[in-house]
């Protein structure tokens, strides 16, 4: 029985034509017997779509969730002193990563990075043992490859998204009042990180904003910042020593788990319990700038704060 293929007819097919063309160019069908019609088509089609799905899953572009901007009360009356005073913040629209950046995503961009993850060989686990400075290099490389303008979230954007944005139900943790429902933490983490997305998401469909790993934010940390922070798209103090980290981790029990809890870390250090997720302005523009305020005592208050806590 002849194994010849009616190539003229096959190449007209919008699906099988391109598949056969690719296979022939790669030498898979040249001078080789092929499977009978339907079986061959089914086999090649399955392989084709599996490869497309696999390659897409390994892609560099992260899964982003659109977050409608708006007003919210930032801080807590029941947390640490650096979470007070509770104050109103107004944010523009932005996108937040649905998941923490994984080890696979990190390696795809940072292929020359020799740093070893604390919990290696887990492609779907969050990237950790990466400093704030390392993250800036990752973001620069990612933006060059994608033509986008990804960045770290500001502390205000992070808290707004963790609380569920405009869909917030007022939970203590990101998506629940029960920490173990949404977080890998001391007591259920088995002293290690876990693949992202394994717990319940929050109101926006964002995962792991409580637990698994702390997440770097763009802002410098200052304990009294809330007393002088502007309300419109705040970006934190202009200088500092430590950077903000948020969300708690597998290594901690209560520290950092509440959506309002503020923690900080040395931006040059690599911690086995700190990772990050990406953010992007809705217009794919530069990071949000502080909006002008009406003339009042805000500028004087900020200058006094800088002099007292930052030294200029």
Task: Give a brief rundown of this model.
By secondary structure, the protein is α+β, with helices and mostly antiparallel strands. The chain has eight helices and nine strands.
Task: Explain this structure.
The protein has helices spanning 7-10, 16-25, 37-57, 103-109, 132-146, 155-162, 179-182, 298-310, and strands spanning 64-67, 70-74, 87-91, 94-97, 214-220, 243-246, 263-265, 274-275, 279-281. The chain has 312 residues and is α+β, with helices and mostly antiparallel strands. The chain folds into 2 domains: 7-57, no CATH class; 64-310, Alpha-Beta Complex (paralog of FGE (formylglycine-generating enzyme)), CATH 3.90.1580. The protein has a 4-stranded mixed beta sheet. It is globular, with a radius of gyration of 24 Å. Mean pLDDT is 82; it is low at 1-5, 7-16, 25-36, 42-58 and 285-296.
Return the average pLDDT rounded to an integer: 82
Topology order in helix (H) and strand (E) letters: HHHEEEEHHHHEEEEEH
**What's the β-strand tally?**
9
Biggest pleated-sheet summary: 4 strands, mixed
The 3D shape can be described as globular
Ends distance: 88 Å
Q: How big is the Rg?
A: 24 Å
Q: How many helix segments?
A: 8
CATH superfamily of the largest domain: paralog of FGE (formylglycine-generating enzyme)
Q: Briefly, what CATH class of the largest domain?
A: Alpha Beta
Which sequence of strands runs across the widest sheet? 7-6-5-8
- Which structural class fits the helix and strand makeup? alpha+beta
Low-confidence stretches: 1-5, 7-16, 25-36, 42-58, 285-296
Identify the CATH architecture of the largest domain.
Answer: Alpha-Beta Complex
